[in-house]
Design a protein that fits this description.
Elements (H helix, E strand, L loop, with lengths): L1 H6 L1 H4 L2 E9 L5 E11 L2 E10 L5 H4 L6 E7 L2 E7 L7 H4 L8 E7 L4 E8 H12 L5 E6 L14 E6 L2 E6 L2 E7 L9 E3 L2 E3 L4 H8 L8 E3 L3 H77 L1 H6 L1 H10 L5 E8 L2 E4 L6 E3 L3 E8 L2 H12 L4 E11 L5 E9 L2
Parallel strand pairs: 1-4, 4-8
Antiparallel strand pairs: 1-2, 2-3, 5-7, 6-7, 6-14, 9-10, 10-11, 12-13, 15-18, 16-17, 18-20, 19-20
Length: 402
């Protein structure tokens, strides 16, 4: 699980803060920081910052960015030894000292040479605690300028690098030697596409690159940063998982909303159809009752209807002149619906006629033709109105003699 977390880029993040701290004899600090970000597989320096106080990190940088820290100066010792020596470590530098009181770093140089760097644990922990207390995670610590190995691809094969406090000799991409720079001034700088990394920031920049590479040439005898490294990665993992869960919940809610809206609209349409169908069913029931009432009336008056209705209809239609078109002929039209029950009252001995006439003369002529029949008691024009066409609409009511 640990190795997996270390190799997942989305958990590592796309930003890293490289910090180099020079410990002065008067307990003051020279601090140079570089914030590096990757975008589309390219490195970009987002910010460079110099300061003298350790408590200024929280005001200068986001504490979610991991820190890669190098310490050097007062209290940090360096010595080049042969890898064939049996007594390489603390005994060769500080005879009689307790190895548990020191942080020891080893870097393979050219040939059989090894650069051993030593710093008191209490000095290192005092610096890291001040940075941790501001909410930052320190993922890796270097003693001295040896993190420069992370920029091998930007260096020439054989090169002398002059940095503040050190002159470093490079042979074939490997460090050959490292010496004190008594002038404390550097002239070496790095070019990163359109950006220039000044000498004061070269080591800080090299520190940050270890976040994006897998350089393992620098070894410490202590793994106290491993806990911070794991805590940082678990924190990033929780953020990634939490963000993914929130996105899934949001998508789920969005899908549920659209589904609810869809079925809600379907439900409204169904309700409207039900109401429409109820109205149609009510009208059908009403018409059924009217038909039943008409049937009962016709059955109760067989002589006046069954025998005479075809005759009346035939005579009326026969006398219709060419200028008149009939649209409706109703025998015994409906008078009204009784309020006390579902029964209907019809106008007995009445015939209602509607139609269209080219002029009133055709209607006068038709009325005179119908009045010659003895069964026609009276003819009344109920309405006569013009329409958008050349024809006029009319309604007649014929009263039949008993």
């Amino acid at each position: 699980m640990t190795s997996l977390l270390r190799n997942i880029n989305i958990i590592k993040g796309q930003k890293a803060l490289g910090v180099s701290i020079w410990l002065r004899p008067d307990s003051e600090y020279e601090i140079h920081s570089v914030l590096v970000q990757t975008s589309k597989s390219k490195l970009h320096v987002e910010k460079k910052w110099s300061q003298s106080e350790l408590n200024e990190f929280s005001s200068s940088f986001n504490h979610n960015v991991p820190v890669y820290l190098s310490l050097d100066g007062s209290g940090v010792l360096h010595k080049i030894v042969n890898s064939t020596d049996d007594n390489l470590l603390i005994e060769s530098l500080l005879p009689g000292a307790n190895i548990d009181d020191f942080i020891i770093q080893e870097v393979q140089l050219t040939g059989d040479k090894i650069l051993v760097s030593i710093a008191r644990r209490e000095v290192v922990e005092a610096v890291t605690k001040k940075i941790n207390d501001q909410g930052f995670y320190i993922l890796k610590i270097f003693l001295g300028p040896l993190s420069i190995t992370s920029v091998n691809e930007l260096l020439e094969s054989d090169q002398e690098i002059s940095l503040p406090h050190y002159n470093i000799s490079i042979i074939g991409k490997d460090i050959n030697s490292i010496k004190k720079n008594e002038t404390k001034q550097g002239v070496f700088s790095l070019s990163l596409e359109s950006e220039e990394i000044e000498p004061d920031f070269v080591i800080s920049f090299s520190n940050s690159l270890h976040h994006f590479t897998s350089c393992n040439r620098i070894k410490l005898n202590d793994d106290f940063t491993d806990i911070q490294s794991l805590n940082y990665r678990y924190k990033k993992l929780s953020q990634v998982v939490g963000s993914s869960v929130l996105i899934l919940v949001f998508i789920s809610l969005l899908i549920n909303f659209f589904l609810f809206d869809y079925y809600h609209n379907k439900n409204l349409l169904a309700k409207n159809e039900v109401e429409t169908n109820k109205e149609l069913l009510s009208r059908i029931e009403d018409l059924k009752k009217r038909v039943q009432t008409t049937r009962e009336y016709i059955i109760s008056n067989p002589f006046e209807t069954n025998r005479l209705f075809p005759y009346f209809s035939d005579r009326i239609v026969k006398e219709v002149p060419k200028g008149i078109t009939l649209s409706r002929l109703t025998l015994f039209p409906l008078q009204k619906k009784l309020p006390t029950n579902d029964s209907y009252r019809f106008m007995k001995d009445k015939i209602s006629i509607s139609g269209y006439a080219a002029s009133s003369e055709f209607i006068d002529y038709w009325i005179r033709s119908l009045k010659k029949y003895k069964w026609v008691k009276d003819i009344a024009i109920r309405s006569f109105s013009a329409t958008d066409s050349e024809l006029a609409r009319f309604d007649l009511k014929i009263e039949i003699s008993k």
